[in-house]
Amino acid sequence: MALANITAAAAGLLNATLANIDTDWVGGKVTCANFYGTFADTSDCIKAANKLPIGSDTRAFHISTSPRYYFKERIPLSRQHGNCMVQVEMAGPRIPPVVHLVPDDIRVVSSYIIETCALEGGGPLGGFGTGNIREMEQWLATLEGDLDKPMPYYTAFPTITFSNPFPDYFSPGNFDPEMALYLSRFVFDAAQPLPPNSRHAKILRQRATRLQKENKVMTPRGRRIPWWSDPDRPPRLDEQMPRPNATEDAAEGMVVLPGVAGAGDEGIGSATKRRRSRGLAVGETESKP
After folding, report:
1. From start to end of 180-252, where are the E strands?
2. Percent of the chain whose predicted confidence (pLDDT) is above 70
3. Which pLDDT belongs to residue 141?
4. Are 31 and 215 in contact (CB under 8 A)?
5. What is the per-residue burial (b if ≥16 Cβ within 10 Å, else e) of 193-215?
6. Pairing relation of β-strands 30-32 and 59-63?
C-alpha cells in the first residue's frame, strides 16, 4: 500500500489528516473479495468507519475477548452501520496483552480499503487491509524468522476488515490464504539480493516455498488454518485459534462477546453457551429427535 494512493479527500472523510500518519504503519496489503461482502455503495462503510476511535496520539489498546474485562479501549473491536461492519484486530502467532496504536492510522487505512475495494469487481466489495506489517516482514526475512519457533511480540500487526454484518471475527491476518501468498512473495524477494548459494538465501527460499504451500491448504472460514502452520502437518482442531464473537451492541457501539450483558436474555452469548454445552460448534444446529 502506498501512502501516495490515499487521497486527501479520503483522509478528511474519516476525520484524519495525512500529516499525522505514520507512513510505515500504513504500508501493507489490501485484499478485496465478495467473500467479505458486497455493497450498493460505500456510504454505510464510511459511516461505520467514522464510529472508530479518533485521535493522533498513541493509545494503549488491551487485547481482550473475555467478558470479565471491560477496558475502555479494547481490541478486537467492531463497528457497524447499516449493511457494513468494520472489524479491527491484531494478527500473528504472538500478540502482546497491550498494543499501542494511533486511531487516525486505523482510520486512514480504513479509508484506503474503502476506496480500493469500491473499484473492485464492478462495484463496492468487502475486504481487509494490514497496518504496520513491516516488522513481521522483516522478521521473516531474517535467519531467525523460523515459522516453527515463537515470534517476538513486536511482529504482531493490525488488520481492518470491511464486511457485511457477521457474528464472528474474520481474522484475515491469520486465516486469509492471501496472507500466506503475500508473505511468501516478500520472503522470496528478500532472498534475491543474497548470494544464491548462501545459507541465508537457501533458508529464505525454503520458507517462501512453505508459505506458498500453506496458501493452497488455507480456507478463510470453516476449519481455518493460520499461515504460519506447517502445510505438511495441519493443526488438530484443538490447536486452532478461538473465534471471539463480533456481533455489535448497536446502542453502545461495543463488541458483544459470548456471555456479555447486552445481547439480550436469549442473545448471542446465551445461545453460544448452550451450543457449546451440547458439544455443538458455533453456527451448528442441534437436530431434533
Report:
1. 248-249
2. 66
3. 96
4. no
5. ebeeeeeebebbbebbebbbebb
6. unpaired
The whole-angstrom separation of Cα 235 and Cα 225 is 7
What are the E-state strand segments in the chain?
30-32, 59-63, 74-75, 77-81, 84-91, 98-101, 127-130, 157-163, 248-249, 254-255
pLDDT digits (tens, 9 = 90+) for 178-225: 999 999 999 999 999 999 999 999 999 999 999 999 999 888 776 688
pTM score: 0.76
Taking the C-alpha atoms of 228, 231, 232 and 235 in order, what is their torsion angle to the nearest 10 degrees? 60
SS3 267: coil
SS3 74: strand
Name residue 222's amino acid: G
Give the Cβ contact number of residue 248 at 10 Å: 24
Give buried/exposed letters for 250-286 (b at 16+ CB in 10 A, else e): eeeebbbbbbbebbeeebbbeebeebeeeeeeeeeee
**What is the grid cell recorded at 42?**
460505500
